[in-house]
Every structure is written in structure tokens, then in C-alpha cells.
Amino acid sequence: MNDPLPSTRPILLIEDNPADLDLTLRAFKRRHLLNPIQVARDGQEALDLLPGWEAGEPLPLVVLLDLNLPKVSGLEVLRQFKACKAACGMPVVVLTTSDEDRDIKTAYELGANSYIMKPVDFDSFASVAAQIELYWCVLNKPVHSLS
Questions:
Q1: GTP-binding among the record's keywords (predicted)?
Q2: Which of 28, 79, 88, 95 is deepest in the core (most CB within 10 A)?
Q3: What CATH code is carried by the domain that includes residue 44?
Q4: Cβ-contact 61, 10 below 8 angstroms
Q5: pLDDT tens digit string along 77-126?
Q6: What's phi and psi for 98, nearest 5 deg?
Q7: Distance between CA atoms of 96 and 114, rounded to whole angstroms?
């Protein structure tokens, strides 16, 4: 199967807070991001995507993962994403309000590619969105399927 173009692969945003979700979507809209944004509003909704990826659906270009999620925690979502053969190489950026050393250490131990503290104001968040877009959507070279 041919990999879709990076600009057509979605960015998966796993976020339960409506205000943070709106802030993120507005920041990406301001950047005129080409990638579609796929949203999971809790940990279980995110994990429900795994069977599709295992069946060959295109993976997101990058996952933006909040840690404080209902139903299934963000750290458990990260653990299961990285344990899934189909999704284990998918970049996961933890984007959260937690600055607990334990959360940071655990996230990296579970395979997070980056850990970013959520900015609280829109302009700062727009700056973070621009950096995420530049690195993960433009500069980073993802692994391509060999099948």
C-alpha cells in the first residue's frame, strides 16, 4: 500500500477539555494547516482507533496527546499506541498542563517523542502550534511502510 502524502494524513488531537480543544483548533486554523485534524475526546475514543490502523488505515502524521483524559488516561493511551505493531512508530507529542517530573519521566519511558507544556494564552499557543507544524508536518521524516 502506498503511504498517503504527509499533507493529507491527519493530526490526531486527543483532548477532552473543550476550551483547550478550541484553542488548539483555532491555533492550527490561524496557521492554515493543510492536514486535517482528527479529534478524540477521551482515552477510550483514542484507543478505538487502533483496530483501524491494524487493518491498514493511514496513521496520523503526529498525535497530540493530553495526559489528563477521562475513561483511559493519556499515559495508558501512549502505552497501548506504542505496544501496537501498526502504530508503534507513530510520533506522539504529549501536550499537557502537567509539569510533574513523574509524568514527564513516565511519558518518555513509554515512548513519547516530545513533551510540551500547554501555553495558557492564544498567542503563545499559536506559537507552539507553528513549531509543531514546522517540525512534525514539514521537517520530520516519518517511517514509510515497507509493504
A1: no
A2: 95
A3: 3.40.50.2300
A4: yes
A5: 999 999 999 999 999 999 888 889 999 999 999 999 989 888 777 677 77
A6: -75, 125
A7: 11
Is there a domain that residue 18 lies in?
yes
**Does 6 reside within a domain?**
no
21-35 pLDDT, tens digit each: 888 888 778 777 778
Query: Does 22 or 139 have the greater pLDDT score?
Result: 22
Look up cell 508536518; give the residue.
137
Q: How distant is the alpha carbon of residue 110 from its chain centre?
A: 14
Domain membership flag for residue 3: no
**CA-closest candidate to residue 11, choices 80, 93, 109:** 93
Does 33 map to a domain? yes
Q: Which three cell numbers stand for residue 40?
A: 478524540
Domain that holds residue 95: 11-145
SS3 assignment, position 95:
strand
